[in-house]
Automatic annotation (TrEMBL), chain B:
The protein's name: Stage V sporulation protein AC
Listed InterPro entries: Spore_V_AC, SpoVA
Keyword check for Transmembrane: yes
Signal peptide (from-to): none
Transmembrane segments: 33-57, 69-86, 93-113, 133-153
Domain of life: Bacteria
Keywords, in A-Z order: Membrane, Transmembrane, Transmembrane helix
Length: 154, 159
């Protein structure tokens, strides 16, 4: 079989990617470190203990690898990252968790998302809250923006 | 059905058919599948990188990042087809380069390039969707059927 340089390179490159992708990373599995950092209390902002409580109760699920949550006075946004193979049942899990959170926080407007973008945005927002660089209005505005993002459809 | 047809052929033609079957080079199905898997997978891998890029640096969510990703992939295919790389890839990748959205882009763009000499309206305009047309027609048609089935099941089936 005569292969050109291009073909050989391509074959090698693809095989390398497949091998790297299919190899299970034992260290990652065994550590099972959750990506959670509780929010510290800031007197100038809303009390973030409901978010911390939500994080604690969602921590119980083994499918979840990371949780980000932020709340204002009557609104809460939660973003979770779930294990890659569990993504097949993502919609089912999301509905169940959303219901559970609504039950746990009656009277609150709870948004639970599994979207990567929402997770990244909440991560940034959590950092800002911990650094205390936000005002109440700014936090509400940011939360409104994130909720709008999570509602976007194609 | 093919066997029945063969039996009706005159003996000389049957002998020729047998000879042809013996001499004919067998299709390397396993190799073709492997190449299609690797190349198709690599194209999707590139697509995933582009999608992750859009999610991280632009206001797109996982839901909405698919559209700009498709557009970018088709744009890249346009360049690859124009410079003649995509047909070289198609030579050994087969279905791996035809099934992803890049294959659709290639079908449109190569037809447009091929018929450019016949003019922009009669040439490019009429021939551009020669290969891609059926994909659109049956894509829309099957989407309609699936949507119809889903509507019936959810509205009246109580699912």
């Amino acid at each position: 079989m005569n292969m050109t340089f291009f073909q050989k390179f391509f074959l090698f490159f693809s095989l390398a990617i497949v091998c790297a992708g299919c190899g299970t990373d034992e260290t990652m599995e065994s550590q099972s470190s959750l990506d959670i950092n509780p929010l510290s209390a800031k007197p100038s902002l809303f009390d973030q203990s409901p978010s911390n409580m939500a994080k604690e109760s969602l921590m119980e699920y083994e499918e979840i690898t990371g949780i980000k949550a932020v709340n204002s006075d009557k609104e809460m946004i939660i973003a979770v990252q779930i294990k890659h193979m569990k993504r097949f049942f993502m919609a089912k899990h999301r509905k169940a968790w959303q219901k559970e959170m609504e039950k746990q926080f009656p009277g609150w407007k709870v948004e639970l998302s599994t979207d990567r973008k929402i997770y990244l945005e909440l991560d940034k927002l959590e950092e800002k809250i911990n650094k205390d660089t936000l005002s109440k209005d700014e936090l509400k505005k940011e939360m409104k923006h994130i909720i709008k993002l999570s509602k976007e459809q194609t | 059905m093919a066997d029945e047809k063969k039996k009706k052929l005159p003996p000389k033609a049957q002998a020729y058919q047998a000879l042809q079957d013996k001499k004919e080079e067998k299709r390397p199905i396993v190799k073709n599948c492997m190449m299609a898997f690797l190349v198709g997978g690599t194209i999707c891998f590139i697509g995933q990188i582009i999608m992750t890029f859009y999610i991280h640096f632009f206001p797109f969510t996982e839901q909405t990042a698919g559209n700009p990703t498709t557009a970018t992939l088709i744009f890249l295919t346009m360049l690859a087809t124009g410079f003649g790389y995509y047909d070289r890839l198609g030579q050994f990748a087969g279905a791996g380069s035809a099934v992803p959205v890049t294959g659709f882009g290639n079908a449109v763009i190569s037809a447009a390039i091929e018929h450019r000499t016949e003019g922009y309206i009669i040439g490019v305009g009429t021939n551009m969707f020669k290969v891609a047309g059926p994909v659109i027609v049956y894509g829309v048609f099957s989407a309609f059927i699936v949507a119809l089935i889903k509507t019936i099941l959810t509205q009246w089936g109580g699912m």
